[in-house]
Amino acid sequence: MGATRLIATVVLSLLVFLSGSSATQKKKTQGLPRQPCNRMVFYFHDILYNGQNAENATSAIVGAPAWGNRTILAGQNHFGNMVVFDDPITWDNDLHSNHVGRAQGFYLYDRKDYFTAWLGFSAFFNSTQHRGTITFAGADPLNKTRDISVIGGTGDFFMARGIATLMTDAVEGEVYFRLRVDTKLFVLVTIDHPAFSLL
Ligand SMILES: *[C@@H]1O[C@H](CO)[C@@H](O)[C@H](O)[C@H]1NC(C)=O
Ligand SMILES: *[C@@H]1O[C@H](CO)[C@@H](O)[C@H](O)[C@H]1NC(C)=O
Ligand SMILES: *[C@@H]1O[C@H](CO)[C@@H](O)[C@H](O)[C@H]1NC(C)=O
Ligand SMILES: *[C@@H]1O[C@H](CO)[C@@H](O)[C@H](O)[C@H]1NC(C)=O
């Protein structure tokens, strides 16, 4: 009987302790830090296949609405088109600079009355400086700047979380565009590279 009471007391005080500590824990970790820990800016270059540039194209229309085709983006703000891409990444805005990684994923146009897209891709890095992926996903309203989520990372970017501010840096007809990706991570990643700064 005494032993049972002792165990009950221990369990009870443990519960009180745990609930107390989880309450303080909650207070301490409420929300993410307001300031990012890392920043990294890169560019990627998309050359869309248009029936004539098979040699250089880095992306292709893989889905089109019934009133369109897979060679030319459909009318009505390209609604219903889906494009798959494997685009080179550079640190600066020059397509002919060193390709330091690949942006691999897709975008789809998801509004008829307004020009907007949904974008999902992984930035795949495989160099002596860093190896790993950062995965981005989110609505891309194609405004001057827009934020998408950084939803994860692997390798050197293990557990990456944050946001990326996208800016369309150049557009050439419906064949070429260049995106500037300003990646801000709220989980500390330590990589020794000038393009990747600790904040
Ligand atoms: C592919 O790119 C190269 C170098 O930029 C250029 O010389 C060539 O004309 C391009 N080819 C096509 C089919 O666009
Ligand atoms: C694809 O659609 C465009 C107009 O949206 C049209 O100009 C072109 O001829 C079509 N191409 C094919 C192969 O059907
Ligand atoms: C990454 O780079 C290494 C060394 O250059 C190479 O051996 C390996 O095949 C590359 N991996 C991929 C998936 O490209
Ligand atoms: C995006 O641009 C549109 C049209 O220019 C504007 O109406 C809208 O408020 C902008 N959205 C954001 C989030 O800035």
Automatic annotation (TrEMBL):
Organism: Hibiscus sabdariffa (roselle)
Classification lineage: Eukaryota, Viridiplantae, Streptophyta, Embryophyta, Tracheophyta
Function per UniProt: Dirigent proteins impart stereoselectivity on the phenoxy radical-coupling reaction, yielding optically active lignans from two molecules of coniferyl alcohol in the biosynthesis of lignans, flavonolignans, and alkaloids and thus plays a central role in plant secondary metabolism.
Superkingdom: Eukaryota
InterPro entries: Allene_oxi_cyc_Dirigent (IPR044859), Dirigent (IPR004265)
Assembly and oligomerization: Homodimer.
PANTHER family to which the protein is assigned, alphabetical: DIRIGENT PROTEIN
Family: Belongs to the plant dirigent protein family.
Keywords: Apoplast, Secreted, Signal
Signal peptide limits: 1-23
Protein known as: Dirigent protein
A Pfam family it matches: Dirigent
Subcellular location: Secreted, Extracellular space, Apoplast
